[in-house]
Sequence to fold (460 residues):
Amino acid sequence: MKIGILDYGAGNLKNVCRAIEHLEHSYCLVSDPESIEVVDKLIVPGVGAFKVAMEQIEKLGVVESLRSFAEKDKPVLGICLGMQLLFESSSEFGETKGLGLLEGNVELIPSEGENGLKHKVPHIGWNELVVGELQSPLVKDLRIEDAVYFVHSYRANNYKTENLVAHCDYDGLIIPAIVQKNRVFGCQFHPEKSGPIGLNILNSFLRM
Amino acid sequence: MKNVRLIPRLDVKGPNLIKGVHLEGLRVIGDPQEHAVKYYLDGADEIIYMDVVASLYGRNNLTNIVEHTANNVFIPITVGGGVRSVEDARKLLRSGADKVAINTAAIERPELLSEIADVFGTQCVVLSVEAKYKEDGTWEAYTDNGREKSGRNVLEWVELAAKHGAGEILLTSIDHEGTSKGFELNLVKAVSEIINVPIIASGGMGKVEDAIQVIDSGADAVAMADILHYKKMTMKEIHDEVRNAGLHVRRI
Fold:
């Protein structure tokens, strides 16, 4: 099983690599259509701005390769911004098209929760995952109250509810935390920065 | 309910973890990495590394320490000291930092915050503020690890910095730093009333009650140093007590 990590200059690339090494899996960095073709599983890391990331990915000429990778039902895991890139578009710094592997778009988190509480944006901190009914290999070992680390200003919106595996509650506001459609997975939080619980979730993907 | 983060702050000079009072009079504590790993295993929510002499030399020397730490510490790491450009930020983020904290260079040129935010996102940009109380009832921002006056009023400065893309404020009270006498609650309160970005209160944590008070005053996270470095309490003890007091910290 060959694991590839998309290298497009994402800020957390090395930290994702470190976590995978710590979990004793081997991996390679991929950044062109040929190398993507030969891996069995792909991780799309990401920290930062949607628009800059998408431009980098376009510059590598791998947008179509990523889409056909997912179409072949090979597992893909997007992390944080990497998850947001899987959606159709984002409004961060102007409307930008995403990879479109998942239905929905990415929008700024409102500065008020649904219960009227003022929130801070970015949403930074440890939040408990609330797992829904969808069975997913990523959450099989999760215990109630397990918390993971989020840091983001944007969230997925207009997604299909059947693609939502887990969310977190931010003052009454739903933040999609884990999404899945077929074998396309996304984590809004950082499994590589969420201590042993996060490493477990990452390991579930690696061992799938 | 608000999530509270408990964050060990490790001030580093050369290869050593150090600790001072009012950001001065530095004392060597030990190896920064060993301490960081211990705090991680004990349940710290994040780690802050601050190169306290970086501004003096115009560069951050923590790249190696951060790189090694990140191999064993799987929680967010904020690194500050001597970050003067997008390239400096990139180097630290590449070496394993998740956020960069900026003080001196941002005071000289606030646009630096937005330049870094444009490339890496606002969540990577922590504005480090070193505040000192003035007799007229205001606070002045200091630079170069509490050595130089900037002439900027803290409240005006954080408001401006938030507009320039600061995603978080590390708010250090120079007067309370290293004293273990509790946080400067009025300062935290004043800042939290005018901006909507998360605040990490720093300087003065001597007991668990101090953390609870500063959260009540509007802080989102609590930085702590002496209490851990001098082994007055472990990270886990603090975590448990804060949780028992009814604050929302993660279960570890």
